[in-house]
């Protein structure tokens, strides 16, 4: 039964097929939501939150992931306004709003008066895709990480996160949870790195994946090794491995102001297909 006059209700396991048809309308942009649906069966206890769906004439036309992140899925401006109205009825429980720019902009405008000042907003994040062989030569030394690498890998992940987000993932007692996440990605074969004489000099992870795409996160080179081409060759290697063994398309989104990273991704062959935005609390 629909729970609001707008035709919005939480989705569950019986809605999985309809939800996957929705994400398949843009399967690369929607890879996070697709991944979450497939791994949780849309069960709230596994989602750690809810997946809202908006219906018109009984058909699912848009959705919104509501967990640690608020992520609109195939949401028009009208859909986003409707999801914002629903979000206002429960208060802010998310740490970020992230997704396609226009939907995020409308969502944020709808809740801004009640949710308070965000810690940071990033409005023009290019969403990039690579669906063919990389244009740059791959670094043959890049490999999947193992537990033996954890002493080098974990501090690098903390440094990358802190540099990117502006706050340490260990802040407020989060070290155990973050270490578990790093280890989880490693165990899945989703963590890649290059080591020189035992020191990590490049890393990247797959954040989420579906049969259609894999989204890369956490690309990082130590500050004293930047400018050597490690990110270009490293990302070419990661893209080859991911496309061969995980999903046919590799995607990521990058901050608009990060010119060196954007230049590196373009050299590898990534092309912009959309614009994302992120609001962080």
TrEMBL record:
Under the heading InterPro entries, the entry gives: Acyl_CoA_acyltransferase (IPR016181), DUF4081 (IPR025289), GCN5-like_dom (IPR013653), GNAT_dom (IPR000182), UCP21603_acetyltransf (IPR016794)
Which PROSITE patterns is this protein grouped with? Answer: GNAT (PS51186)
GO terms assigned for molecular function: acyltransferase activity, transferring groups other than amino-acyl groups
Report which superkingdom the organism of origin falls in: Bacteria
Q: What is this protein called?
A: Uncharacterized protein
